[in-house]
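User: Sequence recovery, please. Input:
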């Protein structure tokens, strides 16, 4: 056998997991044992200062073996527990290696590379083009970044978001697969809700990022900032609302009561975050639904808004926007006025020749202590993804960032004709996400971005398949290229699919994956 053949065989054995493990695989496992021993020494040394580090080693072992056993099972388990288990990941963070969270991000990138390498043509060209301009601009910004170490870490996190968006095109081949993904997102909110309720009971507010969260009694649950929990809850409410109205969550009285009560619980937790932009996002989703589907929901929103204003904390947050809008000495600004001052200082400090390429990745927070008049010797985030992108990457970056949303909306458009409710909720979530990014550090909320763009990718995947199946002439402009894969006939009968022969169903695709956890979850 030639050297190329041996290397190819070794790659296939490693790619397919523990099934058919050979001598080469055994050597790999032994090498892993040595690596685990070295990690044990490192973790043992760190456990003296952080006792929670004692939990890192078993978690790393479980994560590693699950990854080897089944790529799809690994992804599903990670998505189920990652949001709710975020406190463990935060406590195990190390400055040098990033802790367990950094390892998980790396495994997500490796997982995406492995799955995409099986057949790159399964991802439509338009899906690649959603993110390619933006990540290319970000990569260019790394070259002239004033803080390259932090910029590279955040860039790898952004790549993991893109990876989940692309992997969703492998997992969703028909509507039943999309329903499983939405159910996964729904169940991932359960541990988040439980942790948040426990933290509220203990009086533990979100204050690890800045001191304002604790002072305002804003709750962030498992996340270090209340805004992250708020936007995650907006996504969860939107997904659950769609599953309820489409009948996917059940149609009986018990199922309806369970779904409605759980949504009310999440909305209650959303109020506890005191994030006004998230409140507006939820209102936007229900208003859009009320206008296009059920007008009575507009009446419900008016009644609900009047009842919400009876709550002192809600009334105080809403009334706070009318105070502190003038920048005078010793005046206390409200959050929006403070943001406007920050943006004005940043844009007036920028040199005109920097308008095209900006100052490089992570340059806003690096220079904020210099240009912000209320910095107080601290570094501040932009509190606006658009302002941050313009400051760091110039107009080129703003155009690429806007393209992410425009191209995603373009992919969702075919659903308006055949799955109107799904398209309506998905587009509402997409628009609200963009509007919120105008006034928040959306690029820094990694875990929320994981779930949001995985959901968007799953819906876009179904849209592409439906568009290609409904009209073969649309395959080329939508970039759905024929795959070389041909599913085997089952028991002498040709495999059936409602989609074209060039687009196999998930069950057929999973038949080629040894020990596939995703197929087992079906």
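Assistant: Recovered sequence (522 residues):
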């Amino acid at each position: 056998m030639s050297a190329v053949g041996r290397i190819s065989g070794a790659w296939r054995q490693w790619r397919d997991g523990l099934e058919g493990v050979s001598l080469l695989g055994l050597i790999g496992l032994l090498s892993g044992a040595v690596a685990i021993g070295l990690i044990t020494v490192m973790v043992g040394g760190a456990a003296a200062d952080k006792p929670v580090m004692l939990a890192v080693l078993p978690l790393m072992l479980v994560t590693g073996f699950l990854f080897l056993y089944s790529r799809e099972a690994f992804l599903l388990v990670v998505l189920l527990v990652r949001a709710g288990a975020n406190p463990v990941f935060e406590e195990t963070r190390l400055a040098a290696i990033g802790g367990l969270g950094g390892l998980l991000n790396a495994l997500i990138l490796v997982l995406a590379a492995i799955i995409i390498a099986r057949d790159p043509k399964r991802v439509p060209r338009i899906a690649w083009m959603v993110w390619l301009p933006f990540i290319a601009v970000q990569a260019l910004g790394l070259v002239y970044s004033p803080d390259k170490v932090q910029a590279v870490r955040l860039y790898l996190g952004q790549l993991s978001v893109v990876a989940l968006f692309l992997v969703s095109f492998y997992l969703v081949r028909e509507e039943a697969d999309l329903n499983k993904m939405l159910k996964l997102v729904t169940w991932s909110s359960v541990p988040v809700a439980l942790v948040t309720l426990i933290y509220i009971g203990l009086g533990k507010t979100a204050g690890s990022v800045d001191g304002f969260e604790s002072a305002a009694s804003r709750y962030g649950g498992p996340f270090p900032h209340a805004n992250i929990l708020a936007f995650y809850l907006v996504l969860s409410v939107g997904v659950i609302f769609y599953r309820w109205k489409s009948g996917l969550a059940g149609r009986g009285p018990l199922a309806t009561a369970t779904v409605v009560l759980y949504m009310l619980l999440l909305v209650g937790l959303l109020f506890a975050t005191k994030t006004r932009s998230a409140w507006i996002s939820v209102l936007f989703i229900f208003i859009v639904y009320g206008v296009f589907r059920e007008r009575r929901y507009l009446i419900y929103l008016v009644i609900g808004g009047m009842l919400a204003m009876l709550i002192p904390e809600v009334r105080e947050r809403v009334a706070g926007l009318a105070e502190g809008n003038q920048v005078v000495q010793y005046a206390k600004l409200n959050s929006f006025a403070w943001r406007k001052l920050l943006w004005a200082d940043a844009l007036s400090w920028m040199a005109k020749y920097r308008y095209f390429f900006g100052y490089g990745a992570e340059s806003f927070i690096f220079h904020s202590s210099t240009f912000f008049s209320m910095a107080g010797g601290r570094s501040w985030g932009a509190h606006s993804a658009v302002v941050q992108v313009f400051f760091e990457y110039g107009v080129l970056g703003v155009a690429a960032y806007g393209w992410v949303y425009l191209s995603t909306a373009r992919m969702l458009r075919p659903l308006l004709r055949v799955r109107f409710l799904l398209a309506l909720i998905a587009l509402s979530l997409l628009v609200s996400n963009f509007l919120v990014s105008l006034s928040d550090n959306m690029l820094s909320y990694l875990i929320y971005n994981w779930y949001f763009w995985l959901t968007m990718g799953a819906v876009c995947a179904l849209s592409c398949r439906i568009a290609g199946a409904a009209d073969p002439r649309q395959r080329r402009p939508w970039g759905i290229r024929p795959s070389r894969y041909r599913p085997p006939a089952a028991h002498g009968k040709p495999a059936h699919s409602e989609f074209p022969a060039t687009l196999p169903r998930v069950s057929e695709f999973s038949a080629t994956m040894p020990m596939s956890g995703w197929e087992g979850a079906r």
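Residues 415 and 423 are 5 Å apart (CA to CA).
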